[in-house]
Here is the input.
Amino acid sequence: YGNPRDLHRLIRRQRQMCIRDSVIAVFKPNETINEKDTVTINSVDYMVISIASIGLKGTTIYKRCILKKRE
Here is the structure.
């Protein structure tokens, strides 16, 4: 049924392409943002793929979001 390494390479290549085609944006902690929201930057629409709250000792300093260009 094929070499499992070939499947690993395919998945890795897809992940690398996804990362290459994405944008990372930083938002203030009080800004409301959710996954699948549309964010416009420089007149280009992006969809929020993931959100990570970054902070210390339970305090959110900022939200880091990965965005994908909407087509």
